[in-house]
Every structure is written in C-alpha cells, then in structure tokens.
Write a structure and sequence with these properties.
With 285 residues, the protein is of the alpha/beta class. It is 37% helix and 7% strand. The longest helix has 24 residues.
Length: 285
C-alpha cells in the first residue's frame, strides 16, 4: 500500500466518521424542498421556514477547495434541519453553489455572478416560494461577500412578495463585527484558522494543510478607524493585500478545533431559527 493510498483512505474514513457525528444516526432526515411531491406543498403551513443556503465557488488560498463556503453552508443547513426540522418546521431549498465572488475574480477557476444577476436569481426563487403557504425565507450565507447584497435582496423580496426575510451566517465574519483569533489581528476573514479547521472536520479529503501559510496583512492593524469590522469599511479585492489569497493564519488548524467550531455553529443556528420561528415585528395585540 502506497503512502498516497494510506492518506486517501484515512481521509475517507475521517470524512465518514465526521458525517456520522454531525448528522446523528438517531436524528430525522431533513426535509428537502425539491424532494417533496407537488401535493405535499398543500400541507405546508405558514409556520414553515424555508432555508436557502448560499455558498460560493472561489479561491480559498492554496490549501482549501473552491467550494469551501458551499460545504459549510450546505452542511450546516442539513445538520440543523436534521436535528430541529420537525420542531421548527424547517424546509431546505436547493443550495446555491455560485454567488457574488468577484473580489476573487483574479484567481482562475473562481465562478461568480454579478450583483444584478444574483439579485434576480434570489427574487425569482422568492417569487416561487411565495406561491406556497410558506411565509418566512432565511438566507443561510456562507460567503461574506454576499452579505450586503442579501440584505438588499431581503428588503426587496419583503416588498415584492410579502415574505418575511432573514440573513444569517454560520458564524459572524470579522469584517461584519465578528471576532477572529487574536493572532490574526482581526483579519482572519478568508481561509484562516477557523475556516480551515472546520473544513478539516467536514471534508478533510479536500484540504491540503501543508500548503497553508500565515497571510495576515499586519500593516493594516495600525489603522484605528479603517479596516475589517471597524467604523470605516473599504472596498477590496483579495489580491490587494500581497498574500496568496488567504487572509488569516491556517497553520494551526486542526479537525478537533473544527469539530468544536462546527458544533457551536449548529447550536447557534438552532437558537437563531427558534427565534425566527417566533419573530414578528408587529407589536403584540
């Protein structure tokens, strides 16, 4: 048996074990929109929450696959639905694998939609959802570059189709006010420690950790007001920083850390969806 074969088999075994843990063999199977039969849509009630996972296909440094954001968003949606789908009436729409990733357009292989195209896709999907009795639509966004656009889409869909819309993330990105490990100086927003760890847990077969390098634009830490998650934001492309496309430090990533991160994501998503189920902006009567 060659060393390559041994590594491949180890990755396959780790992936199998990972999915058994995160899915939970005793839990229910998540309800998938596209697997329902047409008459079953008449059985849905307005309490049903439709979830649209939104991923991306973009460079993630030399060590992670292009579909990293898709893997995380799609896995999280399926696992939270498997654990809480019945109690919260969750229904999963087909995940979007390509979105607005033009900040990575410099890297060959990146697939991206323009802002008008993605807005149109989201609007047309929402129009279809609105033909059913479903009244709540959640965007589970795995790619930070979509966030502002999804907020715009949510308001437009609310006006055009009458759906209550929500935007949530697996974890809040540092450039949106979230946190990243101290060693990343608040700039661990792409292919860094936590994202790499989660992928080592979910899909170790797709990760090449030996290729990961610390790529933190440390000179930006001197700016008090301009920066990721600071008072003044800035437009950027991922090749602006003189790195290999990574913005963070993946060198300490482990599957164990990824397991803790991912389980925290599932728990947080369940809490968020429970609040979405009860949420109504109108004052109580």
């Amino acid at each position: 048996m060659t060393g390559t074969a041994t590594r491949a088999e180890a990755r396959t075994e780790a992936r199998t074990e990972t999915r058994a843990v995160t899915r939970g063999e005793t839990r229910g199977v998540p309800r998938l929109w596209a697997e329902l039969r047409a008459p079953e849509f008449g059985e849905l009630g307005p309490e049903t929450i439709a979830i649209l996972p939104v991923g991306s296909a973009e460079q993630h440094g030399p060590h992670l696959p292009l579909n990293t954001d898709f893997v995380v968003a799609d896995s999280l949606a399926r696992d939270v639905a498997a654990g809480h789908g019945d109690e919260l009436s969750l229904l999963l729409l087909p995940s979007l694998a390509v979105s607005k990733s033009n900040e990575h357009a410099w890297s060959p292989g990146t697939l991206w939609l323009s802002a008008p195209t993605l807005l149109a896709v989201l609007d047309e999907l929402a129009r279809c959802v609105a033909t059913t009795r479903v009244r709540k639509l959640v965007f589970l966004n795995g790619h930070g570059g979509n966030s502002a656009l999804l907020q715009v889409a949510g308001r437009d869909i609310r006006l055009a189709h009458g759906l209550a819309t929500f935007v949530m993330h697996p974890s809040l990105p540092p450039d949106h006010g979230g946190t990243s490990p101290a060693a990343e100086l608040g700039m661990g927003i792409h292919a860094g420690l936590e994202e790499t760890s989660v992928m080592l847990y979910l899909r170790p077969d797709l990760v090449r950790p030996e290729l990961g390098r610390r790529s933190v634009p440390e000179h930006l830490a001197a700016f008090e007001r301009v920066g990721f998650g600071k008072e003044v934001s800035f437009g950027w492309l991922s090749d602006d920083f003189g790195t290999d496309g990574t913005l963070g430090d993946p060198t300490g990533a482990t599957a164990e850390l990824g397991k803790r991160q991912y389980e925290a994501m599932v728990a947080a998503a369940a809490r968020s969806l429970a609040e979405i189920a009860a949420f109504d902006p109108r004052p109580p009567r």
